[in-house]
Design a protein that fits this description.
- By secondary structure, this protein is an alpha/beta fold.
- Helices cover about 40% and strands about 20% of the residues.
- The chain contains 15 helices and 22 strands.
- The chain has helices at about 45-65, 70-85, 85-95, 100-120, 160-170, 185-200, 210-220, 235-245, 270-280, 300-315, 335-350, 380-385, 400-405, 420-430, 465-470; strands at about 10-15, 15-20, 25-30, 35-40, 130, 135-145, 150, 175-180, 205, 225-230, 250-255, 260-265, 290-295, 350-355, 370-375, 390-395, 410, 415-420, 435-440, 455, 460, 470-480.
- The strands form 6 sheets. Strands 14-15-16-13-12-18-19 form a 7-stranded mixed beta sheet, with helices on both faces. A 6-stranded mixed beta sheet has the order 9-8-7-10-11-21, with helices on both faces. It has a 3-stranded antiparallel beta sheet with strand order 5-6-22, with no helix packed on it.
- The termini are far apart.
- The structure holds NADP nicotinamide-adenine-dinucleotide phosphate (NAP).
- Keywords: Oxidoreductase.
- Belongs to the aldehyde dehydrogenase family.
- GO terms for molecular function: succinate-semialdehyde dehydrogenase (NAD+) activity.
- One of its GO terms (biological process) is gamma-aminobutyric acid catabolic process.
- InterPro entries: Ald_DH/histidinol_DH, Ald_DH_C, Ald_DH_CS_CYS, Ald_DH_CS_GLU, Ald_DH_N, Aldehyde_DH_dom, Aldehyde_DH_Superfamily, Succ_semiAld_DH.
């Protein structure tokens, strides 16, 4: 038996008990690299979710009373458990998700880093004392945990997305009902094992897998749940916000993107190409912050395209479990079809394929790393999130034109620019309507900085001190002392 299989729980965790769905139903999970069914997990519904919410509420009553130091100590153990089991958890993640082992290992370490960071923040959840306008009264501001949190996560980072939510919730003193993506439930269920190893009390973390609509409806409509945190597509995010409005829940939404990557004439071209490869092809282009549009200034355009093409040719496509693989399969054939549709549409409107452009000879959901030039704003690849390994290059002449092109989208998650001009750095940083901007940096996510989008890319921040605030209520206390 492969060692990682001991972390493959085929049950949900509710109130500290591993169990199936009340209906007895299950669904299959497959390996996107091989198409092989790797196992089945419970197909939970609203009733199971209600029980998980009740368990989380029961646990909240005592978890909220723990000291910050007690929570931090358990969270350090949780981070240590993730790190200690990194190799197995990474293999499990690659098996259900497809990304390379190198990336999967980095994701598990990243998850541990979030938990560790939040364990430190738990001890710094300060309130305020405010100078009072009344001599006989004192004013205090207390920070209190919001309560039970419903957390819904996507398949592209099945561990990391959970860590940002669970880490912040635990630090604040909240309890959680998590619903992972159906294509990658095992990485989330393994968090239940890590929680047990760390000694988290039963009910503090509950994990339900299954029917997204039924689970989502219960999480958003049940009045016991006080906050919904969601990472996923903009369409589902909007529906969840509407559903959560009925009980006026707090919401954090990390949604889709359409990231621009601007390369100015004065850029360090090799650094820009290295940043482009990391940002575009990580996770086979299936990250919400990955570049969707390369905007390249005329003077550097041809040289950049040539070097990017050469770097793309070096990418090794294969099963993520094989060491040395740079790009694994896409999550499923539907993902491939969308990528293909974007390439065909661009070529039909006059774009030119420099590299790749087709399904990979490995078959299944593998797609060739692709470079297309001559892209214009009317093409699908310019307007929609491609979510695949396609580098689409536009040409521009002036700085203001590039900023306007970059902002010409309803999304506002991440943007990148390469320049060595200091004044331009600030003009671009301030001009881009995005929640996060990398200047001369292609991968910028870290637990210490706020991650989040503006416009239709969502609301709220994850990670950093701002990420904890999302799980806290502010209470004003006015104390008469006369
Ligand atoms: P998705 O379809 O929105 O699914 C995300 C999660 O929502 C999954 O757990 C899914 O469950 C669940 N879900 C689907 N329909 C639901 C409903 N009606 N009610 C409640 N839950 C529902 O997104 P995806 O295609 O898996 O993920 C890719 C998207 O996520 C991209 O747009 C990407 O940009 C975005 N993303 C954003 C960030 C960020 O931080 N901004 C990070 C990563 C990804 P099932 O799997 O069971 O359908």
């Amino acid at each position: 038996m492969q060692a990682f299989k001991k972390f493959m729980r085929e049950a949900n965790l509710i109130a500290g008990v591993w169990r199936g769905a009340r209906s007895g139903k299950t669904f299959e999970v497959n390996n996107p690299a091989t198409g092989e069914i790797i196992g089945t997990v419970p197909d939970a519904d609203g009733e199971d979710t209600r029980e998980a919410i009740a368990a989380a509420q029961e646990a909240f009553l005592s978890w909220r009373k723990t000291t910050a130091a007690q929570r931090a100590a358990i969270m350090r153990k949780l981070a240590a458990a993730l790190e200690a089991n990194k190799e197995d958890l990474a293999r499990l993640l690659t098996t259900e998700q497809g990304k390379s082992l190198t990336e999967a290992r980095a994701e598990i370490s990243g998850s541990a880093n979030y938990v560790l960071w939040f364990s430190e923040e738990a001890r710094r959840i300060y309130g305020d004392t405010v100078p009072s306008p009344w001599s006989e009264r004192r004013i205090l501001v207390l920070k209190e945990p919001v309560g039970v949190v419903g957390a819904i996560t996507p398949w592209n980072f099945p561990s990391l997305m959970l860590s940002r939510k669970i880490g912040a919730a635990l630090a604040a003193g909240c309890t959680v009902v998590a619903k992972p993506a159906s294509q990658t439930p095992y990485s989330a269920l393994a968090w239940g094992l890590m929680a047990e190893e760390a000694g988290l009390p039963p009910g503090v973390i509950n994990i339900v897998t299954g029917d997204a609509r039924k689970i989502g409806k219960e999480l958003t409509e049940n009045p016991v749940v006080k906050k919904i945190t969601f990472t996923g597509s903009t369409g589902v995010g909007k529906a969840l916000v509407a559903q959560a409005a009925g009980t006026m829940k707090r919401v954090s939404m990390e949604l889709g993107g359409n990231a621009p990557f601007i390369v100015f004439d004065d850029a360090d071209i090799d650094a820009a190409v290295a940043g482009a490869i990391q940002s575009k092809f990580r996770n086979s282009g299936q990250t919400c912050v990955c570049v969707n549009r390369f905007l390249v200034q005329s003077g550097i355009h041809d040289a950049f395209v040539e070097k990017l093409g050469a770097a793309i040719a070096e990418l090794k496509v294969g099963n993520g479990l094989e060491e040395g693989t740079d790009q694994g399969p896409l999550i499923d054939v539907k993902g491939v079809e969308k990528v293909e549709e974007h390439v065909v549409d661009a070529v039909g409107q006059g774009a030119h394929v420099v590299a790749g452009g087709r399904r990979h000879t490995l078959g299944g959901s593998f797609f060739e790393p692709t470079l297309i030039v001559g892209v214009t704003p009317s093409m699908k690849v310019a307007r929609e999130e491609t979510f695949g390994p396609v580098a689409a290059v536009f040409r521009f002449e002036r700085e203001e034109e590039a900023i306007a092109m970059a902002n010409d989208t309803e999304f506002g998650l991440a943007a990148y620019a390469y320049t060595r001009d200091l004044g331009r750095t600030f003009r671009v940083l301030e001009g881009l309507e995005y929640g996060q901007v990398g200047i001369n940096a292609g991968v910028i996510t870290t637990e210490v900085a706020p991650f989040g989008g503006v416009k239709e890319s969502g609301m709220g921040s994850e990670g950093s001190k701002y990420g904890v605030e999302e799980y806290l209520n502010v209470k004003y206390g006015c104390i008469g002392i006369a």
